[in-house]
């Protein structure tokens, strides 16, 4: 298929493509800027179809760097700059990159990183080098790898996920057929570009010819002001971002063109949903992963009120099945053209996730109801059995996230001589204290008695990956060290 940036620069040259602060670029201006950067990158003698690791923040220069590498046929490996030095070095070796390019705004992190074991350049230095004549890729081969990013590694070492142009294209098409694409659309990107949630917004922009409003990081006041004063129509959020925005939702509402939040990272709780409905704020819940180049299942706002907790139905052209009868929990498997072709350096691990008939095992458990709506219960390696009953930590955490004094909670299963395992909760309390008896009573109002945690343990902070996902295996180790 034709180079996506070139295509949009030809189709809609004067349409806005990127807005960041007081700066903006039309598609033709973005093309010129990206081609110039591609010419400057040429001086590094980067080889086509080879890999370059980039550590970038949500700045326009970083956005343009990703595009420039793709123009040259070079594969950007997007790394999380919040990782520790050892983690970064492990991923650089695993990805077998030629070199590393670092956003100059991330210098404060480099002390912790140390030497990265690969030739390393500051983006600021590249931007002042001479401009050579770049060899721009006129076409994007559908099976060519457009990007590589690593999974969060909540249970072990992360995998480098290959994402082809086909993967991104079909992800964008599935999203468009679900959300629609309006001529006035503008997508606010406050999620990191090195996550699939952020990168997929950039890729949709190139497919749709749609402007992206980029912010450096999520700030509640700044984002609220943008939603009120700029013609933003869509914003991707995770539950914590949505709750913070609702807490300061202005009486006058957002700008009149705003049409939806796209919610990922977990289902919406009843209280938050009720608040959104009261404010007439549409929220589209979704389910996806790095391996699927973003969302593969989505729940419309119209269905949300009577399908509480559901992730929705599979998008076009995703096929989804659960290895269990209707309404019973089993392994979630998918087949779609937006599923990765494999992992960097560990294709064997990827092949183990494929069924004999070619479906991808997501590693999640869930069930389909009688109307075909998917309910995700959690990771298959998080589930535990207590007294013969299956317990899913995500379900318990979802209920307790509606409790006013809980800032964060994570549930694990611990060994018990009578029941096999029992649920134990680690809690970060908003006020710094909590009443365990009240938490037990709250749980018994909303959960079966065997699902209510038998113990609540207070922490100042839950252990998380650099991308913010809770590492339950570390909590299990902590429990064993504390109580064994």
UniProtKB/TrEMBL annotation:
Q: Which GO terms describe its molecular function?
A: o-succinylbenzoate-CoA ligase activity
Which InterPro entries is this protein grouped with?
AMP-bd_C, AMP-bd_C_sf, AMP-dep_synth/lig_dom, ANL_N_sf, MenE
Q: Give the family per the record.
A: Belongs to the ATP-dependent AMP-binding enzyme family. MenE subfamily.
Native source organism of the sequence: Periweissella beninensis
Q: Which UniProt keywords apply?
A: ATP-binding, Ligase, Menaquinone biosynthesis, Nucleotide-binding
- Entry's Pfam families? AMP-binding (PF00501), AMP-binding_C (PF13193)
* Catalyzed reactions: 2-succinylbenzoate + ATP + CoA = 2-succinylbenzoyl-CoA + AMP + diphosphate
Keyword NADP part of the UniProt annotation: no
Q: Where is the AMP-binding enzyme C-terminal domain?
A: 395-469
**EC number, as in UniProt:** 6.2.1.26
Limits of the AMP-dependent synthetase/ligase domain: 6-343
Q: Does the keyword Nucleotidyltransferase apply?
A: no
Protein name per Swiss-Prot or TrEMBL: 2-succinylbenzoate--CoA ligase
Name the pathway it acts in. Quinol/quinone metabolism; menaquinone biosynthesis; Quinol/quinone metabolism; 1,4-dihydroxy-2-naphthoate biosynthesis; 1,4-dihydroxy-2-naphthoate from chorismate: step 5/7
Task of the protein: Converts 2-succinylbenzoate (OSB) to 2-succinylbenzoyl-CoA (OSB-CoA).
């Amino acid at each position: 298929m034709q180079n996506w940036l070139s295509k949009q620069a030809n189709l809609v040259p004067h349409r806005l493509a990127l807005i960041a602060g007081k700066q903006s670029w039309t598609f033709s201006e973005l093309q010129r800027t990206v081609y110039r950067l591609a010419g400057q990158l040429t001086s590094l003698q980067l080889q086509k179809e080879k890999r370059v690791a980039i550590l970038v923040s949500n700045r326009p220069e970083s956005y343009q760097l990703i595009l420039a590498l793709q123009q040259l046929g070079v594969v950007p490996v997007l790394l999380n700059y919040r990782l520790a030095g050892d983690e970064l070095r492990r991923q650089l070796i695993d990805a077998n990159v030629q070199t590393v390019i670092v956003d100059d705004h991330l210098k404060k992190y480099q002390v912790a990183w140390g030497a990265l074991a690969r030739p390393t350049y500051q983006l600021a230095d590249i931007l002042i080098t001479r401009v050579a004549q770049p060899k721009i890729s006129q076409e994007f081969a559908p099976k060519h790898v457009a990007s590589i990013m690593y999974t969060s590694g909540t249970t072990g070492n992360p995998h480098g996920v290959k994402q082809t142009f086909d993967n991104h294209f079909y992800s964008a098409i599935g999203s468009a057929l679900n959300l629609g694409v309006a001529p006035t659309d503008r997508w606010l990107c406050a999620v990191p570009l090195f996550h699939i949630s952020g990168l997929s917004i950039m890729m949709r922009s190139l497919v749709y010819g749609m402007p992206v409003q980029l912010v450096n990081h999520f700030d509640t006041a700044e984002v609220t002001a943008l939603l009120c004063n700029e013609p933003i129509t869509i914003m991707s959020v995770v539950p914590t971002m949505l709750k913070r925005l609702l807490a300061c939702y202005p009486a006058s509402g957002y700008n009149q063109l705003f049409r939806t939040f796209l919610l990922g990272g977990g289902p919406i709780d009843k209280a938050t949903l009720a608040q959104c409905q009261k404010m007439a704020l549409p929220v589209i819940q979704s389910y996806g992963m790095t391996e699927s180049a973003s969302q593969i299942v989505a729940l419309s706002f119209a269905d949300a009120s009577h399908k509480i907790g559901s992730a929705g139905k599979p998008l076009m052209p995703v096929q989804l099945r659960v290895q269990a009868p209707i309404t019973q929990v089993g392994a979630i498997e998918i087949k779609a053209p937006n599923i990765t072709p494999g992992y960097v350096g560990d294709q064997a691990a990827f092949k183990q996730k494929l069924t004999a008939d070619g479906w991808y095992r997501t590693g999640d458990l869930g069930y389909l109801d009688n109307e075909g709506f998917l309910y995700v219960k959690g990771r298959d390696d998080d589930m535990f059995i207590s007294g013969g009953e299956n317990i899913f930590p995500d379900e318990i955490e979802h209920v307790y996230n509606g409790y006013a004094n809980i800032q964060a909670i994570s549930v694990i299963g611990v060994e018990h001589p009578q029941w096999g395992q029992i649920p134990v909760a680690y809690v970060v309390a908003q006020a710094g204290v909590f009443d365990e008896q009240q938490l037990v009573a709250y749980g018994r109002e909303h959960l079966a008695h065997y699902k209510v945690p038998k113990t609540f343990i207070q922490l100042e902070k839950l252990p998380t990956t650099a991308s913010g996902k809770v590492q339950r295996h570390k909590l299990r180790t902590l429990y064993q060290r504390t109580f064994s």
